[in-house]
């Protein structure tokens, strides 16, 4: 401890004093943190503003135009883009879906067995392909497994998300954070990550997390959604907001189209379905002419509906309770489904009206769920967020269109698929070749992953148009925008200054304790902003702190990297948590309740094993 204190005192003498450059960069960091938390616009767009600001303020940021734009050509950005496409190829081959379909036969209705199997399989998959697509592929499988075995999906979806984060720490390709951290580490200490360099630590972290989730965590996860039947209408408690009415022979609406009557209506009412002589019709209904004896299923409050039908020759069929069976029609291919807004969906931050969703997809909207809250009124004006769940009445044609769109995750019963063993082997072979070439350093990881993309397209595992759809552009923009910020933090001495301030408080402790403090501080930060943003901000600070106390800088880089993927106590800190927030019906505090103990456990485990494996 005395040696560390002496190193700290010697290093402080060369720390730059607070100056205008540090003030400008520190203010920019604080501004970005505020914007990332408030999120007035997508964080990818916010990040794109960073290179502009750095270039405009180059007198103080010391960043040239080339450096400000360096994030777009950085190996990390290229590799992450390629990994999204490789992940799509693995999904298209059927490998992920085939694995998911085997779970039910293996676990039955044993809840702990389900948690253990889901966690294990998700972690393994997330260690070799990007963890976000893994969760996107597994969410429908897990929710349908829960529905068929009468288990609350709330008990299974948090383990799914956490396992993807834990599995992502096993190899370099598991998450974009690892790839980004490797590039920053190469720049700062000339030590990029090897493909399996931290695998031994990642496996320990994964096993600890797995044990936690099937023991302590299992009892902490609440059953927010109770599945009492296979009836989504009942599960969503829609009975009070769905009514059936009949058009009388003397109605003044006879001969008018539904669009004419309901389009400009100020009242919050939507026509979900029309029945005429035993035949059912759904969207588009605007051109349908109203006739006597027509039956209409209407979404809206009873009070609003009664006000509307007054003196219009419409009879409320109060004795009829709308259920899922009544709305669905297997002959005409009409069915009720849940659709999750994915984290990179074009609908995020938009309303149903803004994007003409119902007209575009010929769907009827019944309800919207955000976490534990279900909304039944003014649905078309609600601003949508990633993880929101739309309850829709659709046709088979609409369902197929939605399934092809990466903006949505469809929670529908998965049909048996005739998987092609040759395609699965080919996709896994391409991925294995990428990993082999990169790990043996025959070619760089960026070139290896690009070669994998070409192979996926050439072998028809990924269609050319899917290449653009598969990429999560928000993550790409985030990397491209924030990488030059990391350069600025280092070049202006801001990283040294912040590290010095932190060490003035923590410098009295042994290096392993300081390492633990840096780990936990990074965890707190990543719970409120992006994992990649946290890595960019904290790695330069951690490296400078290590230099100041004479510690191993690579140990501090690893601690920050692992911590940036440990946002367990917030639904907004990691994309996969957002994706399961709505389907699980969770409350914000559920993540704190389940995730905080795991973060504390890992805050001890990770620094301890870093010190054992790499030394401090």
TrEMBL record:
A GO biological-process term: potassium ion transport
Subcellular location, principal: membrane
GO function term, MF aspect, one: monoatomic cation transmembrane transporter activity
Transmembrane stretches, start-end: 18-37, 43-60, 72-90, 115-139, 160-181, 201-221, 425-458, 470-489, 501-522, 528-547, 554-574, 594-614
UniProt keyword terms in alphabetical order: Membrane, Repeat, Transmembrane, Transmembrane helix, Transport
Family matches, as Pfam families: CitMHS (PF03600), TrkA_C (PF02080)
Subcellular location: Membrane
Membrane topology: Multi-pass membrane protein
Record-level GO cellular component terms: plasma membrane
Occurrences of domain RCK C-terminal (ranges): 230-314, 324-408
Name recorded for this polypeptide: Potassium transporter TrkA
Organism of origin: Orenia metallireducens
């Amino acid at each position: 401890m005395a040696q560390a204190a002496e190193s700290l005192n010697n290093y402080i003498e060369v720390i730059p004093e607070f100056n205008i450059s540090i003030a400008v960069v520190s203010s920019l960091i604080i501004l970005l943190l505020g914007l990332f938390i408030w999120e007035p616009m997508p964080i990818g767009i916010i990040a794109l503003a960073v290179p502009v600001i750095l270039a405009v303020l180059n007198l103080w940021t010391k960043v040239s135009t080339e450096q400000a734009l360096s994030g777009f050509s950085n190996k990390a950005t290229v590799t992450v883009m390629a990994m999204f496409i490789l992940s799509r190829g693995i999904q298209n081959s059927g490998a992920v879906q085939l694995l998911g379909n085997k779970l039910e036969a293996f676990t039955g209705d044993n809840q702990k067995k389900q948690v253990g199997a889901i966690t294990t399989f998700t972690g393994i998959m997330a260690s070799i392909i990007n963890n976000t697509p893994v969760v996107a592929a597994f969410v429908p499988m897990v929710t349908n497994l829960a529905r068929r075995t009468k288990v609350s999906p709330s008990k299974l979806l948090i383990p799914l998300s956490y396992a993807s984060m834990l599995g992502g720490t096993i190899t370099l390709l598991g998450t974009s954070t690892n790839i980004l951290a490797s590039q920053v580490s190469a720049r700062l200490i000339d030590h990029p990550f090897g493909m399996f360099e931290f695998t031994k630590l990642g496996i320990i972290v994964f096993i600890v997390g797995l044990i936690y989730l099937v023991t302590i965590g299992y009892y902490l996860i609440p059953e927010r959604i109770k599945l009492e039947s296979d009836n989504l209408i009942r599960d969503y408690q829609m009975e009070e907001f769905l009514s059936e009415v009949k058009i009388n022979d003397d109605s003044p609406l006879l001969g008018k189209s539904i669009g004419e009557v309901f389009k400009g209506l100020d009242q919050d009412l939507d026509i979900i379905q029309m029945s005429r002589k035993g035949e059912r019709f759904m969207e588009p209904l605007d051109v349908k002419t109203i006739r006597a004896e027509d039956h209409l299923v209407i979404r809206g409050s009873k009070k609003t509906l009664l006000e509307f039908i007054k003196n219009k020759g419409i009879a409320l069929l109060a004795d009829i309770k709308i259920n899922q069976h009544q709305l669905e029609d297997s002959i005409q291919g009409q069915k009720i489904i849940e659709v999750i807004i994915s984290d990179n969906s074009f609908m995020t931050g938009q309303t149903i009206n803004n994007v003409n969703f119902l007209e575009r997809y010929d769907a009827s909207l019944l309800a919207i769920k955000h976490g534990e809250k279900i909304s039944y009124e003014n649905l078309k004006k609600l601003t949508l967020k990633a993880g929101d769940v739309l309850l829709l009445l659709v046709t088979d044609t609409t369902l197929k269109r939605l399934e092809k769109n990466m903006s949505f995750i469809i929670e529908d019963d998965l049909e048996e698929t005739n998987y092609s063993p040759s395609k699965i082997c080919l996709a896994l072979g391409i991925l294995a070749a990428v990993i082999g070439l990169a790990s043996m350093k025959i070619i760089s990881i960026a070139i290896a992953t690009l070669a994998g993309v070409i192979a996926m397209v050439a072998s028809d595992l990924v269609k050319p148009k899917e290449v653009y759809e598969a990429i999560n552009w928000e993550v790409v923009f985030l990397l491209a925008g924030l990488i030059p910020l990391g350069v600025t933090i280092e070049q202006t001495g801001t990283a040294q200054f912040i590290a010095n301030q932190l060490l003035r408080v923590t410098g009295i402790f042994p290096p392993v304790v300081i390492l633990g403090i840096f780990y936990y501080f990074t965890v707190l930060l990543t719970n409120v902003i992006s994992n990649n943003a946290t890595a960019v901000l904290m790695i330069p600070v951690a490296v400078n702190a290590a230099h100041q106390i004479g510690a191993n800088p690579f140990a501090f880089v690893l601690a920050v990297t692992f911590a940036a993927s440990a946002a367990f106590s917030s639904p907004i800190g990691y994309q996969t948590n957002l994706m399961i927030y709505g389907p699980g019906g969770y409350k914000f505090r559920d993540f704190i309740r389940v995730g905080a103990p795991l973060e504390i456990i890992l805050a001890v485990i990770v620094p301890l094993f870093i010190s054992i494996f790499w030394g401090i």
